[in-house]
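REQUEST
  id: r-88c1
  op: predict_structure
  target: Hemerythrin-like domain-containing protein
  payload:
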Amino acid sequence: MPEALRVLLETFPREDWEAHPHFSGLVAFWLDRHLMFRNLLGSLQSDAEAAIDRKIDPQSHKKRVSQYGGMLVSQLHGHHQIEDHHYFPVLSKMEPKLLKGFDILDADHHAMDGLLNRFTSSANAVLQGKGKPGPFHKELLSFGALLHRHLEDEEDLIVPVILKHGPYALE
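RESPONSE
  id: r-88c1
  status: 200
  body:
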């Protein structure tokens, strides 16, 4: 995220978020969702590494890929729909000077759709016994790089807006 779009982050630095009166409720819930995405991705990466090193049996790996991968994809799609159709339009009207930042986040969502499709294809190959854990791990790293950057950018842009205006402004 360009530095000019982090203007509210100076007023509302990360280390002060939890102490802010507007943190509990929506912001805490939203950040917990982001933490869940990071944890699911981390579990998938660790499991793929264990599968590469043959420290997990293929059936256990497939079960975990199905469970965690399915949850990651479905939850991310739902999360992005809420952001794209509700949060981003409302929040960008509250802070029009940050519109370019919301455009960047929206572009990330579109880029992530392609990576999610590749991730799903790679995961399905593992599940069907047609793919190896190595290429799947490589796909996870590629997807993870964008996801981690996107989540940080999103948090740095959106949380300060909600802290400034309050969560009720989104209703």
